[in-house]
């Protein structure tokens, strides 16, 4: 059969050419044709992100490395842009639980619907800077390991936590430079209660919505804006519908490489070890892409005509104060001991 990383032109059957940003080289994933591998060694990797997104590039890295390191004994088929689910991240997690997808890269925000304590990484104004985000993703965090063990009961297993950029605010209405500017903005959020609670605390109107619906909703102005990392804003061309962006570094959601736990346990020990080693290396790959592109992407967005504002220290302090009730609420949900343990881990970075 043709290699799933070959040069077929139909991207919806997993054979993609992962396009990097315009200032990055094109990543072509090509390998020689080979015979079909045994059942269980030909597996699917899915993402809801578009081909040029760093998450998709990271998933492509894992698939290519698995094929190369196994000498094509294992074959990975990559499905991007949420094609398996119509852009619905929650649906692809369910497919991974059921085993129709063996590996999926998702967000902590989506996994929180299964294990609420996963949202701990997304508390508003939690992280100091990207270096601290990277430090937690690199670490063998006991708190993140506890979350992974809870996911086992959902038939999922985490093989890597990837750092992700801060979720910056965009909208089509006005500059947002103070808390007052948030008043009444209709902002898309992920289907996660924490994000809705954040926006309510900051006087905005949250609209939970699947990512596949966002661009059209911005075009039709049924929503005013959204919040996402710079690479998502750029790759999804949100600058075509959003005039304003505020860099406020208010929240992150780690990307999580999950596998179907039954499938993972059925693999031979050597295959699990190989995949885990590659997943560990993928954290460094994602870190490199993230740190390299964050500032460069802001310049690109500026070149596309977006008006970019940065919160002053005084304004950020006002925003932080506004979300104190959110921290109080989620301390009860997560448990004070659990939250304190995570905050203690963060002090190391």
Helices and strands in order, then pairings?
Elements: E1 42-46, H1 54-69, E2 75-79, H2 89-98, E3 103-107, H3 108-111, H4 130-138, H5 142-152, E4 156-162, E5 168-171, E6 186-189, H6 193-201, E7 205-208, H7 214-220, E8 225-228, H8 230-235, E9 244-247, E10 255-260, H9 261-266, H10 269-303, E11 307-310, H11 313-322, H12 324-334, H13 336-346
Parallel strand pairs: 1-2, 1-3, 6-7, 6-8, 9-11
Antiparallel strand pairs: 3-10, 4-10, 5-8, 5-9
Describe, in plain words, how this protein is organized in 3D.
With 349 residues, this protein is α/β, with parallel strands linked by helices. 42% of the residues lie in helices and 15% in strands. The chain contains 13 helices and eleven strands. The strands form two sheets. A six-stranded mixed sheet has the order 7-6-8-5-9-11, sandwiched between helices. The chain has a five-stranded mixed sheet with strand order 2-1-3-10-4, sandwiched between helices. Helix 6 (193-201) links the parallel strand 6 (186-189) and strand 7 (205-208). Helix 1 (54-69) packs antiparallel against helix 10 and helix 4 (130-138) runs antiparallel to helix 10 (269-303). It is globular and about 55 Å long.
């Amino acid at each position: 059969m043709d290699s799933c990383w070959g040069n077929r032109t139909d991207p919806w059957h997993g054979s993609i050419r992962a396009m990097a940003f315009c200032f990055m080289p094109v990543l072509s994933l090509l390998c020689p044709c080979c015979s079909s591998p045994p059942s269980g060694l030909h597996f699917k990797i899915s993402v809801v992100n578009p081909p040029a997104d760093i998450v998709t590039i990271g998933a492509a890295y894992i698939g290519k490395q698995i094929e190369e390191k196994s000498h094509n004994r294992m074959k990975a088929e990559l499905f991007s842009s949420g094609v398996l689910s119509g852009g619905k991240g929650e649906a692809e997690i369910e497919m991974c639980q059921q085993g129709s997808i063996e590996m999926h890269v998702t967000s902590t925000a989506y996994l929180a619907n299964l294990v609420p304590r996963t949202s701990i990484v997304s508390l508003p104004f939690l992280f100091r800077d990207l270096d601290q985000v990277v430090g937690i993703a690199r670490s063998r965090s006991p708190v993140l390991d506890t979350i992974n063990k809870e996911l086992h009961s959902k038939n999922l297993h985490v093989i890597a936590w990837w750092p992700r950029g801060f979720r910056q605010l965009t909208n089509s209405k006005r500059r947002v430079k103070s808390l007052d500017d948030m008043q009444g903005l209709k902002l898309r959020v992920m289907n996660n209660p924490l994000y809705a609670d954040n926006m309510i605390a900051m006087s905005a109107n949250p609209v939970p919505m699947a990512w596949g619906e966002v661009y059209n909703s911005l075009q039709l102005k049924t929503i005013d804006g959204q919040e996402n990392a710079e690479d998502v804003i750029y790759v999804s061309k949100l600058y075509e519908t959003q005039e304003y962006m505020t860099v406020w570094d208010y929240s992150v959601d780690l990307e999580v490489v999950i596998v179907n736990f039954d499938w993972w346990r059925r693999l031979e020990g050597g295959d699990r070890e190989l995949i885990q080693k590659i997943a560990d290396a993928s954290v460094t790959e994602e870190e490199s892409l993230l740190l390299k592109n964050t500032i460069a992407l802001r310049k690109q967005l500026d070149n596309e005509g977006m008006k970019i504002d940065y919160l002053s220290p005084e304004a950020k302090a006002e925003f932080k104060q506004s979300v104190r009730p959110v921290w109080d609420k989620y301390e009860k949900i997560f448990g004070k001991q659990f939250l304190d343990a995570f905050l203690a881990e963060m002090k190391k970075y």
